[in-house]
Amino acid sequence: MPPTNTTEGLDAARVIREELPDTGVQVLSAHVEVEHAMDLLANGRSIGYLLKSRVTDVADFIDTLQRIGNGASVVDPALVQELVSARRRDDPLAALSEREREVLALMAEGRSNAGIAHRLWVTEGTIEKHVRSIMSKLNLAETGEDHRRVLAVIAFLDAH
Questions:
Q1: Is 107 exposed, middle or buried (0-12, 13-18, 19+ CB in 10 A)?
Q2: Which residues make beta-bridge pairs with 28?
Q3: Residues contacting 44, CB < 8 A, separation 6+
Q4: Of 27, 65, 74, 83, which sits 20 to 30 A from 17 (CA to CA)?
Q5: Among residues 85, 65, 58, which one has the least CA distance to residue 24?
């Protein structure tokens, strides 16, 4: 939106939401602005965020405006994809295999390597290999100052 073609439209929508919270707002954008869109969408109902390139059918657009007027929120699929991708990128456990996640979950329950091995019907040596792999994938290097097992459990808890 002029004059600088940056975030003026989103800023205007935010002001409208603050000053007239019952007013529906439909934002049309040339590209996905995840942070700004999330701020706007977090403020309630009757909000829409669509890419201009998606508005190709007048009847569909009018339907979208009516749904927003009735309290619905309409979010462009491209924004949804960005949000899902960002979540995957930010997941510190994404690099772990399913078995490593299972081992880490049992570590979070306070189980020892022997206890985890018994629970999963594998050898303690196998669990030790999984734990080493977990530490490596979570970038938890050995130091004399930190307890890596606790840091791994904290990462697990933060991700859930």
A1: buried
A2: 50
A3: 17, 21
A4: 83
A5: 65
